[in-house]
Amino acid sequence: MIILGTNSIKDTGFNVANSCRFNDASPDILKNGTESDGNRKVWTMSMWIKRSKLGVRQTLWNWGSNSSAEGGLYIDANDFLVLNNDGQQGSSNEVAGVFRDISAWYHIVWRCDVTESDNDDRWRCYINGVQRTLTDGATISNADGEINKNGTHQNWIGGAARSLQSGNPIYPFGGYIAEAVFVDGQALAPTSFGEFDEDSGIWKPISVSGLTFGDEGVYLNFENAAELGTDVSGNGNTYAETGLAAIDQSTDTCTNNFATMNPLDNFYAGGTFAEGNLQVTSVNTGYTYNTSTFGVASGKWYWEVKWSAQDTGSSNQVQIGIAKRVTASATTWLGSQAYTYAYQGSSGHVLVSGGNATGSSSTTYAVGDIISVALDLDNNKIHFAKNGTYTNSSDAAGNSGGVTITAPDSTSGDSGFYFAAFGDGNDSLQETGQFNFGSPIHAISSGNTDGDGYGNFEYAVPSGYFSLNTKNLAEHG
C-alpha cells in the first residue's frame, strides 16, 4: 500500500509562504542543543514534507546524542515512516503504507500522551489528517515516551542526533520541510494543524499561530532566510543551521507545490539528482535525458535552466527542452523521437523528431548560461532564450517565431502531456543542469515573477506565461 501525498489547491485560505530545502548530499541540518526536559509524557509533533529521494533511510526529526540514547521520526530504506521513542533501549513503530510520491506534500502528526491507559491511545500517527495503523501495534517500552530527555541532548531536523557522537552527519534528509511544529504538554489532533478542503476534500494546512506551544515548544515557518532555524513560537528555541544558506529558503510549499525533476523517470539509470531534485547530472555512459514531475497539455508555461557544469571534454551536447515520458532505449536522446524537442548547446540548433535541426540561428551556449523555456501549448510552439535574448528574434508573448511542435495526443498512445526535460547527446560526458521552476537553487540577481506574482526568475516572464506550480495549474492549465 502506498500512502498518497496531498497537492495544494487554488484557494487554500491560509497560505504557507516558505519551506526549507534540505540537500542530503551536503548534508543540511538544523539542530538545537539548549532545550530543557519539557513535558516528557505529553507532546505533539507536526510537519509537512516533500521527499526528493527514495530507498534510503532519512531522518526527519531526532533527539539524543548516540545510537542507544536517541528517538525520533525517520523514513527507512523501504520508504516506511518509523516512530522511535528511545533508540536501542526503546521501541520502533512502523506506520502502515509507504511514502513514495516525490511530487507531492505529506502532512505528518505524531501525537504522544502516555497518561492514557491504552498503548493505542498513547502513541498515534496521522498522515494527511487520517490516523494510520502501526504495523505491529503501538509499543512504548519506556512509559515516559521521552522527548527532550535532558538539557544536554540536542534536537535535530534533517539528520540523526548520533551525528554528534560520530562527528559525521548520519541519515540526512533530502527534500523539503514546511510548518515544523513541536507542542510541549499537549496531545493535539491533526485538526489543530490542518483541515479538509470543503470543495476538493484535499487536506490543507491552517494557521497554527493561535496554538499554545508550551515552554519547550517550537514553530519553524522558515520565513527568515538569514536564519532558517528561527523559532517563531515565542519561546526563542531557535535551531542552528549546518549546511543551509538563504538560497535554501523555498517557495515550494504545501499550499503551492512547484514542479521538480523526477528521479523516478530516470532513463538509462544514469542521472543523479540533488538540491530537492532541481539539479540533474546526466550519466557519462550512454545517452540520457530526464523529465519533470509535472506535465502540461494546454496553457503557456515558463521555466529556466542554468547549465552549471560539464565534467570533461569539449563536445558540448547538453540538451534542454521538452519531452513526453522517456522510452527505454540506450540510443534515445532529446529530439531523436516524436514529441521531444531540444535546444542543443554545441550547435545552437533546436532538434526535433528524428534529430532534425529547425529554427536554428546557431546560437550556442556554454557553462554558466541560463536558458529560458517558454512553452506555448495554446499555439503549439516552443521558444528558447539564451541569457534573456530569444533565438531567431522570436517573441513568445506575441506568438512570433519559435519552433512549431506537435500537440500532445493521448489517443495515439502518447501520454498526452509535455514535461520539462534535460539531457545530453554525447555518451561519454556528464552535464549538470539546475532547474528553476520558480524557486531557484542558484543566486538570482534580478527577481522576476509571472503575471500572478509567483516565481523568482533571472529574466522576465513573457506576458501570458506562468510558472509550473499547482496554483497556476488550477487556474491556467
Per-chain topology:
Blueprint: E1 19-22, E2 29-32, E3 42-51, E4 58-66, E5 69-75, E6 80-84, E7 92-98, E8 106-113, H1 119-122, E9 123-127, E10 130-132, E11 154-157, H2 163-166, E12 175-184, E13 194-196, E14 203-205, E15 218-220, E16 240-242, E17 249-250, E18 261-266, E19 272-274, E20 279-281, E21 288-296, E22 300-310, E23 318-323, E24 340-344, E25 350-352, E26 356-358, E27 370-376, E28 381-386, E29 389-390, E30 403-404, E31 418-424, E32 431-436, H3 470-476
Straight-line distance between termini: 30 Å
Structural class: mainly beta
**What's the CATH architecture of the largest domain?**
Sandwich
According to CATH, what is the topology of the largest domain?
Jelly Rolls
Instruction: Please compute the radius of gyration using only Cα atoms.
Output: 23 Å
- Fraction of residues in helix: under 10%
What does this structure look like?
The chain is mainly beta and 477 residues long. Strand 13 (194-196) and strand 14 form a beta hairpin. The chain has two domains: 19-250, Jelly Rolls; 261-476, SPRY domain (Jelly Rolls, Sandwich). Strands 1, 3, 8, 9, 10, 12, 15 and 17 form an eight-stranded antiparallel sheet that branches. The model has no long low-confidence stretch (mean pLDDT 85). The protein has helices at residues 119-122, 163-166, 470-476; strands at residues 19-22, 29-32, 42-51, 58-66, 69-75, 80-84, 92-98, 106-113, 123-127, 130-132, 154-157, 175-184, 194-196, 203-205, 218-220, 240-242, 249-250, 261-266, 272-274, 279-281, 288-296, 300-310, 318-323, 340-344, 350-352, 356-358, 370-376, 381-386, 389-390, 403-404, 418-424, 431-436. The longest helix is centred in the last third of the chain and has 7 residues, at 470-476.
